[in-house]
Amino acid sequence: MSLLATLRVALQALRANKLRSALTMLGIIIGVAAVIVMIAVGRGAQSRVAEQIRALGANIIMVQSGSSTSGGARAGAGSQLTISEDDAYALAREVDEVEAAAPNLRGSGQVIAGNVNWSTVFYGTTPDYLAVRAWAVAEGRPFDQSDVNGATKVALLGQTVAKNLFGDASPIDQVIRVRNVPVTVIGVLERKGQSMWGQDQDDVILLPISTARKRVLGTTQAKSRNVNTIMVKIRDGTDLAGAESRMKDLLRQRHRLQPEQEDDFYVRNLAEVFEAQEASSRVLALLLAAVAAVSLLVGGIGIMNIMLVSVTERTREIGLRMAVGARARDILTQFLVEAVTLSGIGGVIGIALGTAGAYLAGQLAGWRIELSAAAILLAAGFAAGVGVFFGYYPARKASRLLPIEALRYE
User: Are 308 and 396 in contact (CB under 8 A)?
Assistant: First the structure.
């Protein structure tokens, strides 16, 4: 019997029990759809982590000011400014692994442009900040060292600030007031999106650090060169842990700390944070894929069960076919084709439902979804494999029936 004729007979047998066939395919449909949705969600989570790494900048180490103690109570990190601009310059100069170091002085307040205002945060920093963060200027120009040296009243706006103050109009060369200090907008930063902590990185204003200290934050800050944080970029291909250790040694030496004294600063290796999050997303993706695979396994068991029932019901038919010349191979092929057809049709429907379900999950839950042809082919191949694997035993059992015994079966 040709494969086409076998396929026709298989389809006729499946049509004879439409409801049973549909219920049997349901397990495969759910399994394939689950595989596609789960892989799309898992890949989306991994891509989101990679995007956050690119948004923050690669090979970043952050140095934060230490904590203060009052009456035996210790405040949190950054409650006392214990690091300075000079520390940043020393790190860039004396630690070989450091490519750039940008001191940051943080403030917040109301920003006014004409009759529009917006509450945001601003950072006083140096030109190296954009290099450390791998942050380009989308429009206009960045400020340079001459702006820092002269405490020039200029600013770079994040996309969120620019949108809320100026709408679709260009903010370049417009004057805004930061804490009632007029500054001229010279550039707009490229969009960064949310950070891994859920903060809008585009809701920010960058100022020359001298301008922030002397003109915006007031005379108290103007008398000090201390800063809140130092963002450090490590050269590619170097050991982050080794660089972190040498940075700590240098800062302890500069701060004249004795061996028994604790650090008066905090060092955070952001690469380790991202690696941990990426590892978590990989585990999540594998877990989701395993759950989906179990669904397919259950669907395959359903196919085996129904095919065994079908063999029992059609024992006399099998005996009759063998009696008129059908070979064991023909019977094996017929039942195997029926099992593969069930899983194949279920796989096609599952692919359609899984693709729609993935997009629906992305829209309703706001998740990052990444569908790939590889995931769809994997699900389809898995469905076909399930049909062959779980359909082989019932097909083999049918092919080994003796014609005389099969014809006598009641």
Answer: no
The answer to pTM > 0.70 is no
Cα distance between residue 401 and residue 315, in whole Å: 8
Backbone angles phi, psi at 189, to 5 degrees: -75, 155
Phi, psi (degrees; rounded to nearest 5) at 321:
-65, -45
> Residue 301's CB: how many other CB atoms inside 10 A?
13
DSSP letter at 255 equals T
Which run of H or E residues covers position 400?
none
What residue ranges of the chain have pLDDT lower than 50? 68-75, 78
Distance CA 278, CA 287 (A): 14
**pLDDT for the residue 173:** 94
Q: How many helices (H) and strands (E) does the chain have?
A: 14, 14
Alpha helices in 226-372 (DSSP H): 240-254, 270-313, 315-323, 328-365
- Confidence (pLDDT) at 309: 76
Q: Are 351 and 32 in contact (CB under 8 A)?
A: yes
Domain boundaries, the chain: 3-52+276-408, 83-263
Whole-number Cα distances in Å, 294 to 59, 275, 287, 356, 382 = 39, 29, 11, 21, 12
Tell me if residue 145 falls in helix, strand or coil: helix
Q: Report the C-alpha gap between 48 and 277 in whole angstroms.
A: 10
Structure tokens at 15: 């049509």
